[in-house]
Amino acid sequence: MMINPIVHIEIAGQDGEKLEDFYSRLFGWSIVRRIVGPGFPYGQIDTIAKSASVTGGIRHEPEGKAELVFYVEVDDLPAALAQAQELGATVRIPIITTPDLTFAMITDPEGNPVGMIQKKE
Questions:
Q1: Which of 6, 20, 58, 89 would be a feasible disulfide site paired with 84, CB 3.0-4.6 Å?
Q2: Does domain 16-50+67-119 have CATH number 3.10.180.10?
Q3: Which is nearest to 112 in space by CA: 10, 4, 2, 11?
Q4: Got the DSSP string for 95-113?
Q5: Domain locations in the chain?
Q6: pLDDT greater than 80 at residue 19
Q7: Predicted pLDDT at 68
Q8: What does the pLDDT look like over 83-112, one tens digit per residue?
Q9: Is 95 left (phi over 0), alpha (psi -120 to 50) or beta?
Q10: CB–CB of 9/70 below 8 Å?
Protein backbone atom coordinates (compact mmCIF):
# COMPACT_ATOMS: atom_id res chain seq x y z
CA MET A 1 0.00 0.00 0.00
CA MET A 2 1.35 3.42 -0.95
CA ILE A 3 1.65 6.00 1.79
CA ASN A 4 -0.22 9.13 0.74
CA PRO A 5 2.07 12.11 1.48
CA ILE A 6 1.02 15.61 2.47
CA VAL A 7 1.57 17.62 -0.69
CA HIS A 8 -0.17 20.95 -0.02
CA ILE A 9 -1.10 23.13 2.94
CA GLU A 10 -3.40 26.12 3.14
CA ILE A 11 -3.40 28.75 5.85
CA ALA A 12 -6.66 30.67 6.12
CA GLY A 13 -7.59 33.95 7.72
CA GLN A 14 -9.66 37.06 7.10
CA ASP A 15 -6.62 39.12 6.07
CA GLY A 16 -4.72 37.10 3.45
CA GLU A 17 -2.21 39.85 2.69
CA LYS A 18 -1.32 40.12 6.39
CA LEU A 19 -0.72 36.36 6.55
CA GLU A 20 1.37 36.43 3.36
CA ASP A 21 3.57 39.15 4.86
CA PHE A 22 3.84 37.31 8.20
CA TYR A 23 4.93 33.96 6.72
CA SER A 24 7.24 35.40 4.08
CA ARG A 25 9.04 37.49 6.70
CA LEU A 26 9.13 34.78 9.38
CA PHE A 27 10.16 31.75 7.30
CA GLY A 28 11.54 33.36 4.11
CA TRP A 29 8.80 31.80 1.98
CA SER A 30 8.28 33.11 -1.53
CA ILE A 31 4.58 33.89 -1.93
CA VAL A 32 3.07 34.88 -5.28
CA ARG A 33 -0.33 36.57 -5.22
CA ARG A 34 -2.71 35.13 -7.83
CA ILE A 35 -6.39 35.53 -8.58
CA VAL A 36 -7.75 32.00 -8.96
CA GLY A 37 -11.38 32.98 -9.43
CA PRO A 38 -13.69 35.99 -9.25
CA GLY A 39 -12.96 37.69 -5.93
CA PHE A 40 -10.71 34.83 -4.84
CA PRO A 41 -7.13 36.03 -4.30
CA TYR A 42 -4.67 33.29 -3.38
CA GLY A 43 -1.09 33.47 -2.14
CA GLN A 44 0.78 30.58 -3.77
CA ILE A 45 3.52 29.44 -1.35
CA ASP A 46 6.81 28.12 -2.73
CA THR A 47 8.65 26.20 -0.01
CA ILE A 48 10.92 24.03 -2.14
CA ALA A 49 13.35 22.60 0.41
CA LYS A 50 16.37 20.33 0.61
CA SER A 51 14.18 17.52 1.89
CA ALA A 52 10.88 16.47 0.38
CA SER A 53 9.71 14.55 3.43
CA VAL A 54 6.86 15.67 5.65
CA THR A 55 5.86 14.06 8.92
CA GLY A 56 2.57 14.43 10.71
CA GLY A 57 0.75 13.54 13.88
CA ILE A 58 -2.69 13.32 15.48
CA ARG A 59 -3.03 15.20 18.74
CA HIS A 60 -5.74 14.47 21.32
CA GLU A 61 -7.44 17.66 22.51
CA PRO A 62 -10.23 16.57 24.88
CA GLU A 63 -11.23 20.13 25.84
CA GLY A 64 -10.23 21.88 22.63
CA LYS A 65 -11.65 22.34 19.19
CA ALA A 66 -10.59 20.37 16.15
CA GLU A 67 -7.67 21.97 14.36
CA LEU A 68 -4.86 21.27 11.95
CA VAL A 69 -1.31 22.20 12.94
CA PHE A 70 1.72 22.13 10.67
CA TYR A 71 5.31 22.39 11.84
CA VAL A 72 8.09 24.28 10.08
CA GLU A 73 11.74 23.35 10.62
CA VAL A 74 13.90 26.33 11.62
CA ASP A 75 17.65 26.65 12.23
CA ASP A 76 17.41 28.75 15.41
CA LEU A 77 14.18 28.21 17.35
CA PRO A 78 14.67 30.95 19.99
CA ALA A 79 15.38 33.50 17.25
CA ALA A 80 12.42 32.34 15.14
CA LEU A 81 10.11 32.49 18.17
CA ALA A 82 11.27 36.03 18.97
CA GLN A 83 10.80 37.09 15.35
CA ALA A 84 7.32 35.57 15.27
CA GLN A 85 6.35 37.65 18.29
CA GLU A 86 7.79 40.80 16.71
CA LEU A 87 5.63 40.08 13.64
CA GLY A 88 2.45 39.80 15.72
CA ALA A 89 2.29 36.13 16.76
CA THR A 90 1.61 34.95 20.30
CA VAL A 91 3.35 32.03 21.98
CA ARG A 92 0.96 29.14 22.44
CA ILE A 93 3.49 26.56 23.70
CA PRO A 94 6.89 27.80 24.84
CA ILE A 95 10.08 26.00 23.84
CA ILE A 96 10.12 22.33 24.87
CA THR A 97 13.13 20.06 24.40
CA THR A 98 12.84 16.31 23.74
CA PRO A 99 15.64 13.80 23.10
CA ASP A 100 15.30 14.30 19.31
CA LEU A 101 14.26 17.91 18.83
CA THR A 102 13.19 21.21 20.30
CA PHE A 103 9.81 22.71 19.44
CA ALA A 104 7.39 25.52 20.21
CA MET A 105 4.00 26.58 18.93
CA ILE A 106 2.71 30.03 18.06
CA THR A 107 -0.62 31.47 17.03
CA ASP A 108 -0.30 33.58 13.89
CA PRO A 109 -1.90 37.04 13.64
CA GLU A 110 -5.14 35.49 12.29
CA GLY A 111 -5.41 32.80 14.98
CA ASN A 112 -3.89 29.78 13.19
CA PRO A 113 -1.65 27.48 15.25
CA VAL A 114 1.85 26.93 13.81
CA GLY A 115 4.57 24.72 15.23
CA MET A 116 8.29 25.32 14.80
CA ILE A 117 10.90 22.58 15.19
CA GLN A 118 14.67 22.72 15.53
CA LYS A 119 16.16 19.26 15.02
CA LYS A 120 19.16 18.18 17.04
CA GLU A 121 22.31 17.68 15.02
A1: 89
A2: yes
A3: 11
A4: EEE-SSEEEEEEE-TTS-E
A5: 16-50+67-119
A6: yes
A7: 80
A8: 999 999 999 999 999 888 899 999 999 999
A9: beta
A10: yes
